[in-house]
Structure formats: structure tokens, C-alpha cells
Amino acid sequence: MAEEPSTLSRVGSFVSSAASVVAPISVLTALLFYFGYASSRAQYEYFGIDVDTIGLSTQDYVMRSPQSLLTPLLGLLLLGVVGATVHEFVRRRVTAARLDAGGPDGEAAELARRRLARSRRGAHVVIWIGWTLLAAGVLLVMTYTALQDWDFYPLVTPVCLGVGAALALYGRGVVRLVDHEDRSRRPATIPLALVLATSVFWATATLAEFSGRGTARDAATHMERFPSVILDTKERLHLTSPGIQESVLPSFPGQTFLYRYRGLHLLIEGGDRLFLVPTEWSASNSTLVVEMDGSVRLQFRFVNSPP
User: Which pTM value belongs to this model?
Assistant: First the structure.
């Protein structure tokens, strides 16, 4: 019985460690799912399809998210490298100036105090610019009704808020680096950090939607990249999209499929349905939804180079 507390302690430690790993993975999966969903929704909305009707799984959305997140992640990494480089340069200058300001050499100390004063003024300018951008972002949020039709509204607004919060935070950090006793407006740090995190999420989601819409526009001009489909039906579909060829199949005993359609491409498959689009896509075209229930017959054409 003496070993029971130790065993329970080890089990509790294992559960705690597992939870510390599972929780971040769950959050990461949720983020990847959301960005993949935002990108896919914008992509298939271009073709007139509600992405929820396709029936993609959570794994499908997660697998689609890297394409839309590549540019934002590279941009954030680049900004992080630039920010770290600038901060290290500023930190070294301020640290050196603080050491010189307390040195025995009066002239060097006076020059160092002047450098610290300039650094403090520069930091306050950065803070002022940050709060100005924050105010502009708040104004954009408040005027959403009037500006909601502006294509770049969902990107410009979070950028103003995020850059403003980042500059305000950094400027306050430089002020405290110059003067360790400065504690002015310290309670604003957490709200600014929350605004920054929210803005990064908002801007990333917007870029994911832009990526999905851009992918759709590129696909619409290169439909030949999608699998070419020959569709046989029992009834005439009266398809009017340019590029679709309709022909009547010869009739013989036992033949149930009477019409054949060429010039269609498989956009995506979801569940038991195929979403077909014409070779020549335009805004007036429609996406054909085909149920895989035996009511149609499909052939996928050979598109690679001949053997």
C-alpha cells in the first residue's frame, strides 16, 4: 500500500504531460480546419457551390489549409526576423548608452544621456503612430456598414489594428528599456496584445479567403487541368454552357442511356456526388451536380501523353 501514492503520482504526471501535448495539437488542428474551410468556401463559392453541400471532412479541410497559409506564415516569419534584428540593434544601443551614462567620464555620460533622451522621444513617436493606426482601425470597424463593399476592407482593417497594437507595444517596451522605473499605462499591455493576436487571426483568415478565390479564378481559365469527363444520361439535360457537346446515342435493346455530353470536367467529388464544370467557364455558366446512384454513366478521358 505504501507504493500506491507514488503510482498515482506517476499516473497524474503522465496525464498532465499528455494534456499539455494534446491541447496545443487540438488548437492547431482547429486553426488549420478554420483556415482550410475559409479558403475552400471562397474557392467553391466562385463556382456557385456552397462548400457545406460538398461534404468535405475535417481532414480534407486541414489538408487544404497549407496552401492558403503559406504566404501569411512566410510573411510573419519575415516580419519576425526583421523585428528581432531591429530590436537587438535598439537594445544594444540603449544598453550601451545606459552604461555610459553612469560612467565616470562626464562628457561621455552627457552624450549617452542625450542618446537615451533621443531614444525615449523616438519610442514615444512610435507609440503615437501605433495609437493613430489603432484609432484608424477602430474607425474602420465603426464604419463597416458604409465600407463593407470595399474589397480590401477585411484586410486593411486588421492590418491597421495589428500594426498599431504592435507599434504601441514595442514603443512602450523601448521606453521601459530606456527607463526601468517607467510604469506608465502598464495595464494597457494585455488589451494591446489581445488586439494584436485577434488582428493576426483576422488578417490570416482574410488572406486564406483571397487565396481560395485566386485559386478558383486561376482554375476557371485552365479547366483542362481537371479530369475530363464524358457523361451519359437517360434524359436530355439541355445544357447550354459553351464548349459542351451533346450527342444522341444509338438505340438498341437494353440501352438505357440515350444522351452523351462532352466538354465537362470534374471540379471536385464529395460523398456520392460529382461537381462538373464546362471547359469554357464564365460567370453565366452553372455547375452540374451528378448523383452517383446509377442514373448516369461516367467515363474519364485519357489526358496524359500517349504511351
Answer: 0.77
